[in-house]
Write a structure and sequence with these properties.
alpha+beta, homodimer, five-stranded mixed β-sheet
Chain lengths: ~475, ~475
Amino acid sequence: MAKGDKNVEMITSRDVDFAQWYTDVVKKAGLVEYSSVKGCVILLPYGYAIWEMIKTELDARFKAVGNENVYFPMFIPESLLQREKDHIEGFAPEVAWVTHGGDEELEERLCIRPTSEVLFCEYFANAIQSHRDLPKKFNQWCSVVRWEKSTRPFLRTREFMWQEGHTAHATAEEADAFTLMMLHLYADFAENYLALPVLRGRKTEKEKFAGAKETLTIESMMHDGKALQTATSHNFGSDFAKAFDITYTDKENKLQHIHQTSWGLSTRLIGGIIMAHGDDNGLVLPPKIAPIQVVIIPIASHKEGVLDKAYELENTLSRHFRVKLDVSDRTPGWKYAEYEMKGVPIRLEIGPKDIEKGQCVLVLRDNGEKIVASLDNLVEEVQMRLYTIHKAIYEKARKNRENRTNTAFSIDELREKLDTAAGFVKAMWCGERTCEDAVKEQATATSRLMPFVSENIGDTCFVCGKPSDTLVVWGRAY
Amino acid sequence: MAKGDKNVEMITSRDVDFAQWYTDVVKKAGLVEYSSVKGCVILLPYGYAIWEMIKTELDARFKAVGNENVYFPMFIPESLLQREKDHIEGFAPEVAWVTHGGDEELEERLCIRPTSEVLFCEYFANAIQSHRDLPKKFNQWCSVVRWEKSTRPFLRTREFMWQEGHTAHATAEEADAFTLMMLHLYADFAENYLALPVLRGRKTEKEKFAGAKETLTIESMMHDGKALQTATSHNFGSDFAKAFDITYTDKENKLQHIHQTSWGLSTRLIGGIIMAHGDDNGLVLPPKIAPIQVVIIPIASHKEGVLDKAYELENTLSRHFRVKLDVSDRTPGWKYAEYEMKGVPIRLEIGPKDIEKGQCVLVLRDNGEKIVASLDNLVEEVQMRLYTIHKAIYEKARKNRENRTNTAFSIDELREKLDTAAGFVKAMWCGERTCEDAVKEQATATSRLMPFVSENIGDTCFVCGKPSDTLVVWGRAY
């Protein structure tokens, strides 16, 4: 991938220009490349490998709670998309339309799925008749298309990879519980696998998914204080079921509408990992999803025994970790910078003197700490260090969120706090759309969520002053 | 999935109407469902699970020979598609065109990838400069779109799932060797994983991939004697490299064009598995890719101890195999028919008398054989039976091919043989396109391949009578 020493040139500092730092990192770490297809990017091997790690773990977790994988067509006939009013209003402005197949104009144009609720509804309407056909818990891994104006790798591209789960349940209680369970599944994955602390809660009416009764969300904070919606879980109640006439006969032989959920997570998450954990030397990858967990760099590798020992360590460690041994003719300095850029959690240096002493040097990516480690219990040492790196970067991200979370009791105060230093701002809200619109207009901030675990920091809406018992976390978001 | 007892209704016999048998099986086994999107089908959990099995195994084999996964955009700008003349001529008539994004008409229309050579070429042209950047071995798992007129699940749909590998090499020799290695990788996978015997060879000029210098293919024969192209591996030489100006500087600092390959395999393969192995009771799945390898059916499950023992067996066998225990209130007879339809290799029946005797009954899907098996060494017994089923269905398919392979020394003879009973026909061919066209026109047969291991069944072309040393296998194909 590397050409000359370009990859290890300095990148922009985060504090100088966070957006430029981000662009530098995704390119120099070899995650993505631009193509001549406007608004789309290429996921290169290193970037795609991170997505594969995410997929493999999440897929196992989905299946463990009874979800089954399927694949539905990428096309949606225009008439089908229009069946649910709120849904079409939410998505029609940003879909791509196929109008011709070969030389022939289509009788009805097809959009490329921006999301697949309507296709699953159509299937459910045909496939579900009795309570014995329920529940259905489907998931698909695919790409979707939304015709966005601006492009930012992982965060905003016209085509992006994601998974979308779609389930059908007999009762409202079951759908409620499933929506919540999937959100907690995402939250646990984000925190315990990606070291990404998240807030859990509900979206307001204004911010919920087009057509949903309720949208649950996990929100994380990036290094620069801006919010990233990390995953969402939607409860549709029976709205889609009514629009698509999806019914079943219950045990008393009465006709009932089904209750539905959908839930999704996309490659945006990779953008979140980059922006939450990265530093001025490049990526800092959470150990559990790092495609390379340990990179071995031989020092003075022309000296007798060095390469032999490096291969031996590769062999030993590979049984437990994802390991790369770099025996290329690049200088050690080049290699240090390269694998720092790529966010490899542990660098292992081994040279003639180390071998003499039966040791090696481990350098931890998150804080640069150098540890002299005995070769005798290296597997245990590496295991322990990967664990502590996970804990440390989680804690660093959590502290950043804590330091950047404030309260506000007026729109002016909220705007001022966000202008000084972006972050989350907690404020009480009456529940009225007009107040929420006012915050957007006067402070360019959106409601991120109403946390499940609320606080009572006041009794009145910070916009209109009416009584309020609802805390909202506000912020500026990617 | 099942509603009432519909799933176990009789299906059409293979000998009465093979096409109808096929349609019955894919629906009643729960592999696919039609949707309102014309020409596209839904892959349901059982069908998608088979694709996942194929993906997991092939992906590991690809990576073992140095291929890396990537993801390229699904769109191709019209001007980019037109860069290689033969390629555009091959694909333009059957691509889907996106003309609008939201309400706006696009400046340049985009096709949805029918295959991605041109996108990879564009990337290679930018990313490759020095011999140090080579080789590049990329693969992607995705769907592609070809605007076909007719629809047949797995065999011909407008959107279908596949993988496409794209590699760039410094020398012609390396590209030649890699093209061949990937073909053998596919062949080994087909034979040793899917129990699908294949012929290995080269396509003629007429039948090769649009833009390729050479196309290698594996061809298998279905139960009805028709051919299925199972996977292909293409050698592009430097033709695309010249059209896209993809060069590198070699070790002597001279500018050279790269040499490229591509290779692919799709969900058509699932159609092949169905048609090669299936019988009048439904699917017969190769044990290595069967989503359920052993189904446990408790007999007289209300009797004391039966369910306990069934759960115990599930627990024991699940550590080694993919197992399903069906404790639903369906009758055993319904369950037998259901899992036969689904092609589950082994049915395990366990009832009160079996338990008394410390045994169970294994019923083999391929030949209906019933085996009384001791519970003492059940894991070994099942392991052995899965192995022998694999061997047996491979051998049955190979015998079918052998019995249906003939020779011909004139077009009339070839036509007559194919009209009597479809199959492969070997005949010597001079290499001229006109003779190949004549076979197509007069016998509606195509050249399937020129086998790597040739035979000399004559010295002259069976069409024109000119000298020939090339054996071609002809047939009618899906």
